Amino acid sequence: MSIRPALLIHVALLSGGLLSACATSRQIAVDYPKTETSPLTPIKGQTAVTPDDYYVQIVSEFEFKGDNALKGGCSDIGASYESGDLSAALLFNISNEALKLKRETSGFLYQATTGKCNFKLETKKVNLTPWLRLDSAKDTQVEYSFLTSNSREANLSQLVGDINAASGLMALTGVGTGIAVMGKLAGSWVEASAARPAVAKPPASAKYSSETHNLPASVALGARGGHLNQSRLAVYEVVDGGMKAWADETRLLGEMRVYPELSPSLLLKSVVDGVPDAHDLSLDELLRLPIQTAAGEIPLRQLIDQVDQAEKPNLNPDWRQYDEVENQCRRLKLVLKGLGFNKYDRNAVLYYFLAKSADWKNFNITPQKAMADAIRPRVLEQYRGKDFAGCLADDDYVAMQSMRLPVNTAADWDDLSSNRQKKEGVISSVQSVGRQLLTALSHPDKDEVARQLYPLLTAENGGNGSVLLQNHLGNFGLETLLQLPAIPDEGLVISAAQFATVIAGLNVDSFSCVRPALNQGQPLANIGITLFVGKPGSPREQGGALEFETVQGKITRLAFQHSSYRDFEQTIADYPDLGGCRIEAEFLKRLH
Fold first, then answer.
1. Cα separation of 160 and 107, whole Å?
2. Which of 32, 122, 312, 482 has the fewest beta carbons closer than 10 A?
3. Separation between Cα atoms, residue 479 and residue 113, nearest integer Å
4. pLDDT tens-place string over residues 84-122
5. If DSSP states are collapsed to H, E and C, what string results for 373-438?
């Protein structure tokens, strides 16, 4: 037997007294606590711990270490047991001034009469605190008292019973913070505490001994994270042999553990060692979840409704008004934080609250939709501008995204904008040359057409003012217009004046706007198309497509194409608005 427990045990024997000088008796002794410290580790998938990550609940639990006394054989059990004169109890006193939390509860109760088997030991797992956010839990103080008595007047059994009845509310578990710290809700906790059953303390004449100590804080936070403390109190059983002091026998009965339990969420579907999963939910579903409060279990919506009117959010604002939605989002965020919810639960509720807003959906546009030509870059910038900065910070978006919620962080928007600018750069280079081409071709005077075309054209074998012309549209009299016997498949180099003659001979009624050609859905940087239809009597009245290829801002190749070439018609159907060029269905019908 170690020296330290031996001293404690002899003190217990002297202070508690013996029921009989010659009878066997059994007592309980508690050693001073030992503390085990462990680092507060980040949630799986995260790199650091913040005070807003976890909830913590402080729990006490008795772990048996010794043998069952009945295994040694007993002849004086059963009906011979009477309400014991010898008794001991371990009590906890928990307080958190910031949360107005004050409560008492018991760790164990021991009662005994003479005879080694005439005893009763009651232990249970106890939730010393409700679930609290880390930054609130760090201020929680736990004090324990060990009481022993050999007097029936002390009646530690009644004392423990009264304390447990008064603290029964806190035995409830489930989702919720247990304590509200805002306005009326904080007041309701104080009122509920005042209305608890009275605890009958032992009378002044009762003889009992007590020892009280503070346990180290279960949660310690610092600038670089934090750590958790678990306290262990060794509990010994002492069997005394009466006048034969050398017959004393001491055995470790067990340990009373006081330790923190962690949870990353109280509202959401969650894995034990990871970030909570918040996808596939709804606001109504979250608002129906039961929350434990001083008044009992109530839905989250009802808890929010109890907030002072000046702070209370409107959960059904005009979703078309961005400013109003942003303001109510901010109110809801403050209320949820005041109620003790951590960043995961808060942001899950905020996400589904905002999900009814079109501005929220626009801000969280998918990369695929952001690249669609129907949404112009200036519209994207308008979407990005409504980022709900009056309610949400960058960390909120990161938390939402980590819970599998489809949101765009600042980095996501930077990528979206960059990719769209690259696409616009590709499109704009083709469209710039294409617009100059259309301006020249649309002029009614053939000579002016040639003059405007000249600086736009260049061919490898013909130099400035010339272009390679190809015909894949069929026999519509191109050779006749050029007064040539035949045009080879690879095409031939012609002058700006010759091409102006071709356009005049085609008698074009109208051109479409210019679009870049696509390859597997991606715009090409150097090939564009425009569609045209002829006037009545035109050699190509149903029209076709004119494709052009550029090198360093000049057109090197022109080709008459059938509308099926490069699947022009299908790409127009798939991408009706490409680079701001929208070709209507009515125009396409005229091509047939």
1. 9
2. 32
3. 123
4. 567 888 999 998 888 778 888 888 888 877 665 677 888
5. CCCCHHHHHHHHHCCCCCCCCHHHHHHHHHCCCCCCCHHHHHHHHHHHHHHHHHHHHHHHHHHHHH
